[in-house]
Amino acid sequence: MEWLEVSVTVDNEAAEAVAEVLSRYAYHGVVIETGPEGWNTEPVVVRAYLPADDHARANKRRVEEALWHLGQIWPIPDPTFRPVAEADWEEAWKEQLRVLHIGQRVVIRPSWLDYTPAPGEIVIDLDPGMAFGTGLHPTTQLCLEALEELVQPGMEVLDLGTGSGILAIAAAKFGARSVKAVDNDPVAVKTARENATANDVQEVIRVAEGSLEDVSGDYDLVVVNILARVIAEMLQAGLATRIRPGKKLVAAGIISDQEATVIEALERGELVLVERRQRGDWVCLVIKRDQGLS
C-alpha cells in the first residue's frame, strides 16, 4: 500500500500544534524530525502519513485547510506532499526516535532498540504511533521530571489528555497505586492501552475515552499536559475539585506568553502556584489545592 506523506517545516514552538492537527487525518503515524540536539535545534520537520486511497484528495484538502487556520495563530508554511511506500513510512518515524534520558532516572526506550538499564533507572518502552507523547517535546520532559519528584508509592493519579500514555506509565512505574488516564481521541486511547500493556502496568492504569466532565472523584496528583487555553477552561470547569485538599496539579503545554491565562484561572479557582519550571518557551506549573477549598 502507498501513503501520501505531508511534511511541514516549522520552529519548535509550532511543532506540537502542527503534529496535533496532522494527527486528526493521519491514521498511521506522525513523525517529528529534530536536529542532533533535539528541540534546541531548529527548524523542526513534522511529517504525517495519509492513506493513498479514495479519500486521499479530500483528506489532503482538509489538512491544507486546518493548517491554514492554524497559520492565523502561528506562521505556518505551506505543506508539501509526496507518495511513499509502506516500508518507507514504517522506517521514517522509527529512525527519529532514540533512547532518551530524562530527569534523574527516566529512560524512554523505543521497543525496537536494545538498552541495558543502570541500577535505579525507570525504563518506559514506547511505541507512540500517532498519539502525541514521545518524550522528545519539552512539555513532556518537564512533566516527567515533575512526576519523578512528586509521585509517591500508593498515590492515586489522574492524567488528563494522556496521548501516548507516557505520563501515566511513568506515574505507575514511580509507584502510584492507580492511574486514571483519559483522552478524547479514540486513537490515543488505543495507543495508551497498548503502551500500558507493553510496559506491564495495565493493571495499574485505567485508560478511558473522555474529558474532565467524564472523570469523577478526586486524586492525590493530577497532570494535564495540553495547551494553556484548554487548561484555563478546565480550571474554570472545576478541575480543582479533582485534586484532593493539600495535593497537587502539574499543568504543562503552556507557552510562556500564554502563562498569564492559566495564572488568572488559578486565582479564581483558589489554587496556589508552588513551583514554576521552564524550558525554552515552554512552562510547567506545579499547583497546590488549598486545604480549605470545598
Descriptive notes:
This protein has 294 residues and is α/β, with parallel strands linked by helices. It has two domains: 93 residues, Alpha-Beta Plaits (2-Layer Sandwich), CATH 3.30.70; 159 residues, Rossmann fold, CATH 3.40.50.150. 30% of the residues lie in helices and 32% in strands. The strands form three sheets. Strands 10-9-8-11-12-14-13 form a seven-stranded mixed β-sheet, sandwiched between helices. It has a four-stranded antiparallel β-sheet with strand order 2-3-1-4. The longest helix is centred in the first third of the chain and has 15 residues. The model has no long low-confidence stretch (mean pLDDT 85).
Which labels suit this protein?
294 residues, four-stranded antiparallel β-sheet, Alpha-Beta Plaits, Rossmann fold
Mean pLDDT: 85
Number of domains: 2
CA(first)-CA(last) distance: 56 Å
Radius of gyration: 19 Å
- Note the beta-strand portion: 25-35%
